[in-house]
Design a protein that fits this description.
Blueprint (H helix, E strand, L loop, with lengths): L5 E4 L5 H14 L4 H19 L6 E7 L6 E8 L4 H10 L11 H12 L3 H11 L9 E2 L12 E4 H8 L2 H4 L2 H12 L1 H5 L2 E7 L2 E8 L3
Antiparallel strand pairs: 1-2, 2-3, 3-7, 4-5, 5-6, 6-7
Helix pairs in contact: 1-2, 2-4
């Protein structure tokens, strides 16, 4: 089962239609009321993240399911911007630096933004502006059977959770804060995995709920 592909932008185009596709998906697949609400929440959080992206972006959004996964929300994001334009945006900001992302989806947004300016430049952004430091814990090799195709690199929520270990008992303040952030996140609480794959000027984000 796959819904129609909806093109959305961070200017709000396609946002309402994308969320409506989530409701249609729930009806077509016979989800109960609680599960349907979860799918809608995941779609709303995904679209909200797209609307918060900096610069010019377009994204193709759809939802699918198969025998391995009850819900798979797929987002393919592209931008005409390059690293130089990204730096111009940063320099034009009031504090002359990339504002720290707040919340789990805020950090996913920043990971996507930085990834879109090519893998060679991500390190430069991190070194200069200190962005996405602990998110590197989720970087991983391509997982077998991944829905994301050949990529330069990939970040996975599942891998990130595993890398945390017992954050509360570790005494590591940064890890504890990161774990608290996950516990407060709608997406992290519902989804089994979130994967962000970067290839050139394209980023694919996939949110999976394997079963209800």
């Amino acid at each position: 089962m796959q819904t129609d592909i909806i093109t959305v932008t961070n200017g709000g185009v396609g946002a309402k239609e994308a969320v409506e596709e989530a409701s249609k998906f729930a009806i077509y697949t016979g989800l109960d009321k609680k599960s349907a609400l979860r799918v809608r929440l995941l779609a709303e959080e995904t679209i909200g993240m797209v609307e918060a992206l900096t610069g010019e972006f377009t994204a193709d959004f759809h939802i699918e399911s198969d025998k391995k996964c009850a819900v798979r929300i797929c987002l393919t994001i592209k931008t005409p911007m390059d690293f130089a334009k990204k730096k111009e945006l940063i320099e034009a900001s009031s504090d002359k630096k990339n504002a720290a992302a707040k919340g789990f989806m805020g950090k996913i947004r920043q990971l996507i933004e930085n990834g879109l300016y090519s893998i060679d430049e991500v390190g430069s952004l991190q070194a200069e502006y200190g962005t996405m430091t602990y998110m590197n814990l989720g970087m991983c090799e391509m997982a077998p059977g991944s829905a994301i195709h050949t990529v330069d690199y990939m970040w996975s929520l599942e891998n990130y959770r595993n890398s945390m270990g017992d954050a509360a008992a570790s005494g590591d303040t940064a890890k504890k804060e990161a774990w608290d952030e996950l516990e407060k996140s709608i997406v992290a609480n519902i989804a089994d995995d979130v994967r962000v794959g970067v290839k050139g000027n394209t980023v694919e984000m996939i949110i999976e709920k394997r079963k209800f």
